[in-house]
Every structure is written in structure tokens, then in C-alpha cells.
Amino acid sequence: MTMRSDYCGTLDHKDVGRDVILCGWVARRREHGEHLAFVDLRDHTGIVQCVVDGAQDLRSEFVLRVSGRVRPRPEGTANASLTTGEIELGDCNVEILATAEPPPFPLEDRDDRNVDETLRLRYRYIDLRRERMQRNLRLRAKVNSALRAAMERQGFVEIETPMLIASTPEGARDFVVPSRLQPGRFYALPQSPQILKQLCMVGGIDRYYQIARCMRDEDLRADRQFEFSQLDAEMSFAGQEDVLAAISVAVADATEAATGRRPAEISRMTWLEAMNRFGSDKPDVRFGMELVDVSEVFASTGFNAFKAGCVKAIRVPGAAAAWGRNRLDGLTDQAKRWGAKGLVWMKVGDGMSLDSPVAKFLSDPERVALSAATGAEVGDLLLLVADDWRQACHILGLVRLEIGRPPVNEGGHNFLWVTEFPLFEGVDDAGRPIPAHHPFTMPHPDDIDGLEGDPLTARSQAYDLVLNGWELGSGSVRIHRPDVQQRIFDLLGIAPDEAQRRFGFLLDAFRYGAPPHAGFAFGIDRLVALLAGEENIREVIAYPKTQTGVDPLMGAPTAIGDKELNDLGIRILPPPAKG
To answer: What CA–CA distance (Å, rounded) separates 372 from 320?
Structure first.
């Protein structure tokens, strides 16, 4: 005999008259007279009301097996908020499968944001019973399933790469694992399967993918954990267009599986356009307030604060009245904390006058030209930043998000490809360029000839996928030509012997015939969070760490005993002296 015949949340009026057996947890118990109780029984599908006749002690979170007959609820007692709200279970026979202590916090979703997150994570096995967490984790499973199906349909082969590898220069800190068999030596946990998947291309796999677990020892935040999952892919005899097409299909399939709606064709924007219009390489395009370059307006200005390489402005429609002086001063202070030299505000008044502490320093032609350039109207608020181009864009982009960004669950799902990133992001102390992605990124074909002349203007064949202002992931066309790779190494000051030491296992493989190849990887945690309408990826991860990197459930990280340390040949240094 099976333990149950049905799930709680699947019953409705079509089941009236059926005898069923249900299993679940007591969500609520309400007394009705001396010997009658209404028990709301919950499993992962939902809640059903059971009418229990008898004085059994059925408390919150007791685990029950209930048999009974489905019947309509009495007239006037239907509950429209439940999918089972038109029916109830009567003639119930109850078997207590397990008793339970009172839970440490309420399990109703409306209460969860008032519960300390550390407490939720300490008792995560209870937290997981809530409808919100059940919904999020099952949505995540749908996304993973859709991604796998999409990749396999396009000819990709799932390959599992090792978790214990050599430390590689990925950009973030490695988590390291000591070797017991070779004391004094360490494995690293993979930050990504980057080099291994490129070796798969040398090995003729042609199209590789993996839902890969990756680890990076970097500071945690709302969209970052020590360990995370990513859809990792690589393609041989392929370029940027092939990768973008394949990943777009996978993302669209996953979104449709999660939401029931297929996103529109993913639009594109170059990095330069994204910075100019939105002040960010991961622009949130759900709302306007785009940046306007007003440098020409102030090209001959006498106002010293605007004598800068670039002056950028944004228009906040109709916001002049709502933004008082205290609020504007607070925004100015925030901009300074971000690195701005200052933030200039102007309110557009009747007759297109400009009310601002700096208005007196501007000429009439400058005021007229500024209003025209920004499309200002009476009642608008203008915000301006003057600095070098990159900093002005960056600061005003942050200001734009601070005052205009909608909640994560509003405005739909706006995917965007950002392409043509700079090949280098600056120079080091020795004047050598710093790779913006990694040293194996292929330069843009139109910029290869000028690499040595002005490397900082070179574009790369690198691309990011952005969703509602979150960077989901990045990829690039890889360098497979030895001559191009050597030119990049020369620019970076990496001598042949150092290149061999750091990247030998990849460079050696390329000597045996490397096909042109390109790839991509994006974070599944971030994608699922946005599809679920969550602001924090911890809400779509079964057992996450806190923002300080602690696991309250298992108490990790923990100390280990002297015997284990001795086996590994490790000694713990005393903490550094204070002062």
C-alpha cells in the first residue's frame, strides 16, 4: 500500500466524493467546538483543510498521514486564496508520523522578511518548508532542466571537469585544498573551468557545456557567494555570433520554462554606447533617465567646476518639487562617497529658469543650451557631473540607479548583449596594459594592427549578457594563433619562460592544433533570482552562506584537530599582534 494517494495542493472540486490519503505537516490547527478541529495540512504543492473529529493533540509542524473523503466546503466558507479553497477533507482518520517542537520562526511567507536571516539559515531545513523557498528551488530546477535541453538540442556535450585543479590566474583568490599525499602542496578549487574547456576544444569535443560548480574567495554581496553555479560553454570553429546565438536560445528557453513567457530577441549594445547612455557596462534598460553629454555646452564656460574633460547630465522628469534641499544634499554626499568631485543639481522653473546654487555662474546661452540638450521641461530636475569621461559616466550611472531603478520584480525581463569591451582596462605601475578579461581574449579584428601603438584604445571580442542591470555572465573569442598570443604577452610584459610557467599546459596543447574557438559562462544563481523576482541570490540557493561567509547551519568554517593538521603538514600561525 502506498503512503499517500494524492498531494495536498492538487485537490479541487473535481475530486469531490473521492477517498484520498494525504501526507504533510500541520500548518495550522483551529478548534471548532469540544471535539472538532480544522487542520490545515501542507506539503510542497499547497494546503488543504482537514476536518478532524476527535481530541487528538495535533500541533504545528507535526507530520501526519490523513485519510478521508473530499467534499465541498459549506456554503460561505470557501477560501479564494487557496487553490483548494472550495473543498475540504472530511471523515478524517489521522496517523501521527512524527511529532515536532514549535518552529523557531513563523513559516508563513508574509512573515519571512521580519525574521533574522541568520536564524533562517541556522534552521534552513525548516525555512525550506515555506512556499517561497519551495517555489524558488523548484523554479531553479526548471531552469537547469531547460538549459540542459537547449544545449543538448544544439549539439553540445555535457563534460564534467575536475574540482581539484592547479591554481590558475583567474583574477580572484583561490580556495586551496592541502594534499595529504604530497605535504606542502595544494590543489585549488576551480574559479571556472576556463582552461579545461579550452583543452576540450583542442581534444575535438567541438561543443562543450557544463552546469559547473565554481568557487571564488572574494567578498560576498547580494549577487555573489563563495560557491556558485554557472552554465559554462565552449564552441569550436565558431566566433562571437555563434556563441551569442546558442546562449540566447538557452536563456530564452529557461525564461519561458520559468515564467511561461518567451523573451523578445535579445538586443545588443556596444560597451561604448552602454557607458555613454547609461554610465554602466551592465545597464538597466527598464527605465529612461539616460545620460546626456553636455560637454560642448560648457566648452567655453567660466564656471571652474565644469572645466573638465567631460560633463554629463541626466534629466529626472517632474522631480523638482519632490526633491528638497536636504534630499539633494544627501544625494550629493553619496556621489562624493562614490568618488565624485561634486554633483550639481538644477530645478527647471517657469519660463525655463534654472534654480540652482550654481545658476549664477552660468551664462544665459549656457542655460538655454543645457535645457535644449537635455530636453528639459518645467518641473524637471537636472543632475550633472564633471570629470574625465569614464569617471563622469560611472558616477552619474550610479546616481541614475540610486534614484530611478525599479524593484527587481517590475518592468519585465530585459536581456541585453554588451559587446566590444576594451581589450585592456588601464595600465599597471610599470606602464603595462592590464587585461580587461583575460590574456587569451582575441582582439577585435579592426584593432589588431594598432595594438602596440595605442593598446588602451583596442577593443576585444568579449561580450557580456546583462539582465535588468545584473551582469549574468561573460565570454569571448579566444586567441588560438601563437603570433597574436605572443604579441599580447609582449604587451603585458610576460616573458616566454613566465608564460610557460603560468600557462604551459594550455600553450603546449595549442602546439598540437587548436581550432578557432569561443565560449561563454553565466551565473545560474543570478538568472534564477531575477526570474523569481528576488533581490538576493541567497533566496534561490538551498544552503547559502551569510554575507560574512559563515554557514550557520553546519557552523562552517570550523577549526580542525591537531591530528588532521599533522597529516596535512600544516601549522596554524598565531593571530597577528594588535597595534
So the answer is: 17
Where is the domain boundary, 404, 429, 444? 404
User: Could you report the per-residue pLDDT of 498-515, keeping only the tens digit for each?
Assistant: 888 888 888 999 999 999
Phi then psi dihedrals of residue 488, to 5 deg: -65, -45
* Residue among 391, 295, 382, 300 at smallest CA distance from 347: 382
Peptide bond into 482 cis (omega under 30): no
Residues 123 and 237 in one domain: yes
φ, ψ for residue 365 (rounded to 5)?
-60, -35
Indicate whether 303 and 264 sit together in one domain: no
The helix (run of H) or strand (run of E) holding residue 42 is strand 36-43
- The SS3 of residue 554 is coil
Helix crossing, 131-153 with 240-259: angle to 10°? Answer: 140
C-alpha cell at 537: 541570490
Burial class for 82, CB neighbours closer than 10 Å (0-12, 13-18, 19+):
middle
Cβ atoms of 106 and 130 closer than 8 Å: no
Is position 79 within any domain? yes
Q: Are residues 227 and 297 in the same domain?
A: no
pLDDT value, residue 396: 98
Residues 267 and 292 in one domain: no
Is there a domain that residue 437 lies in? no
Q: How far apart are CA 268 and CA 274, in angstroms?
A: 10
Does residue 464 belong to any structural domain of this protein? no
Exposed (0-12), middle (13-18) or buried (19+): which is 81, by Cβ within 10 Å? exposed
- Confidence band, pLDDT 50/70/90 cuts, at residue 170: low
Lowest-confidence region among 78-92, 150-164, 165-179: 165-179
Question: Which grid cell is 316?
Answer: 529626472
Count up the domains in the chain and report the number.
3
Mark whether 225 and 312 lie in a shared domain.
Answer: no
DSSP H helical segments within 279-361, as ranges? 325-337
Phi, psi angles (nearest 5°) of residue 240: -60, -45
pLDDT for 538-555, tens place per residue? 999 999 999 999 999 999
- Indicate the residue type of 418: V
Q: Return the CATH number at 82.
A: 2.40.50.140
Provide the residue range defining the domain that includes 331: 288-404
Could you tell me if 262 and 122 lie in one domain? Answer: yes
Parallel, antiparallel, or unpaired for β 36-43 and 19-31? antiparallel
Q: Say if 448 falls within a structural domain.
A: no
- The CATH code of the domain that includes 350 is 3.30.1360.30
Task: Determine the Cα angle at 439 with ends 433 and 443, to 5°.
Answer: 80
**Contacts for 199 with CB less than 8 Å, ≥ 6 apart:** 505, 506, 509
What's the predicted TM-score (pTM) here? 0.93
Q: Do 139 and 235 belong together in one domain?
A: yes
Give φ, ψ of 69 to 5 degrees.
-115, 135
The answer to whether 71 and 88 have CB atoms below 8 angstroms apart is yes
Instruction: State pLDDT tens for residues 394-412.
Output: 999 999 999 999 999 899 9
